[in-house]
Each structure stands twice: as C-alpha cells, then as structure tokens.
Design brief:
By secondary structure, the protein is α/β, with parallel strands linked by helices. It has 16 helices and eleven strands. α6 crosses α9.
Amino acid sequence: MAYSLTDLPTLQSEGFDTIIDVRTPAEFAEDHVPGAVNMPVLSNEERAEVGTIYVQESPFKARKIGATRVARNAANAIEEHLLHKEGGWRPLVYCWRGGQRSGSFTTILQQIGWRAQVLEGGYQSWRRHVVAQLYDATLPFKVIRLDGYTGTAKTELLGRVARLGGQVLDLEGLAKHRGSILGDIDGVQPAQKGFETALLETLTSLDPAKPLLIEAESARIGTVRLPPALWNAMKDSPRIEVEAAPHHRARFLATAYKDLSADAPALTTRLNHLRPLAGHATVEKWLSLLDANQNEALAHALIAEHYDPAYARLIRSKTAPPIATIDAGDLSDRALNAAAAQIAHLLT
C-alpha cells in the first residue's frame, strides 16, 4: 500500500525507520525529502542512457535495459547498506513520481520481509507540498525584520537573540551566502528547490504564536530567491534598525571576513563586477587596498563608497520608520550581547 503525503509533521510522526530516495545522485543533490538517504537504483549516467534509448530506439528496450540496471543497483544497495536491518524495519521509498524505480526497489524489500512502502506520487508529491506552502499559502508568522547598514553584525545578532530564547530565521545560513557581493565566496549555494525545502523544514519547526525575527534581505540571496509567501510576509513587516559608527563596522567586517584574504583572486573578481556601478577609479583603489592587505581600510572604503549609498537609497523607499533603533556600540562582544538582549526583549 502506498503512503500518501499530507505534510511534513505528519510524515515525521508516522514512524518510518528510514526514508529512501532511489533517484540519481544528481536528483538527490538538487533536493530531497527531509531526512532521506540516497540509494540510487540508476546512476546519473545510467538514467541518461535509459532515457536516450527510450526516445531514440524504443520504450520496451529502455525498460529492459533499465530493469537490469535497477536490479543490479538494488542488490548492491541491500548488500552494502541494509543487511543489518531486522525484520521489523519499516522504510518509505520514493523516486521521481512513485513509479518504476521506487516500485521495483520496494517490491524487493517487501519480498525479503521488510515493511516497505512507496511514497505515492514520489518526490513530486513533496514538491507540490513545498509549492503549496511557500508559493500559494500565507505564512502564519508575525515577522519582524532586523535591519541596518552593512557591518552592523545583524547575522551575529540573530544568533545571540536565538540563544536568549528569541525565535529567528537565518536566511543567509539556509542560502549559504553572506548576502552581499562577497557572499558566494563561502561556497556552493543550494539549488532553489533545495533551499525551499530547507526553508520549509525550518519554518515547520517554529511556533507561529511567537514573533519571528528575520534579517532584512532583498528578494534574492545570491542565486536563490525568496519564495512569494516569505517575501510577502517580510516586505511590509515591522523592522528593528541596528546602528553603529562606520569605523566600528569596518573593523567588524575586516574581522568577520578575514578569511577573504586567503582567496584574493575571487574577491578581486567580485570587486571588478562593481565597475559599472562604482567606476574604474574607485574599484582600482579598492584593489590596491586588497593588494596591500589593508583589510580594514578596504572594508571602510566599501562601506563609504558602496554599501552605505546603496542602503541610503533603499531606506528612502521605506515608508514606515523602524519600531525601534538599537545602538550596537563598538560591536564588541559585550556591546553585541547588550544589543541582542534589547532585541530579544522587543520580541516578548
């Protein structure tokens, strides 16, 4: 009997011992049901091969070739990962749409004696649920944005507020991006679908009865976009503004981004992307500071000549004043603790 997905909390309460994604590694990497493990019954190359045969030769031949690959890979998966499972083991198996790949693997598991079930509709049923929640629904949260100039330690403050019991959503953490021109130096961002799954999984774990603090972001963080339900909840929400003097912000940025000096070529590339906005002379000055390893001076120049003018243009478009302004002082550990305590109090 196939299992029909309704929502993530219900799925998590069903008591499945393992959720198995039998799609290819590439499909799994793009996105998967939370908590799933990948046991592909077709590799990336094998799926491409079978698909080509299906289109260019015949569906029947493709099914024959596919069956041999699925049977071989299923046997390997059982031998490598599942032989230690006891008779009461209860897995949930899915592929792209709950068809041949998951059906074949589940049948083998059932014949062994395990209580395996197929996820009805496969991964597509999960994706429909994500879209329904993040594109079509209204988020049931009272969102408060944490706003302020670049370098006011907003991401750091989110973590400190969370440790004080405040409810926060770290979008930059989920997007694996610092939310600025320097952001993607941190590494590879998730695919859009994977970002949305991580976002929904996090939102599902939160309490709609409590205010939700989110760092003010644009509709895009690096390569990923904020889905409509979240963006709609954020764009007109109340905001708390954090303030700090430019020289304190420059020192904080130079310390927080000190790893960037280890990848000067990547930073050079990103600074060069700003030539149409900042002009060649300004960018050349920034690059000379980078070459001289004057990180704090570079941060100060970026604040004065790029970040602050951009934020000032944005702030003029905001119609409502902040509900509170927090002075983060010199952005020291003590000052950030004090600022976080003020923000946490505003959330109560």
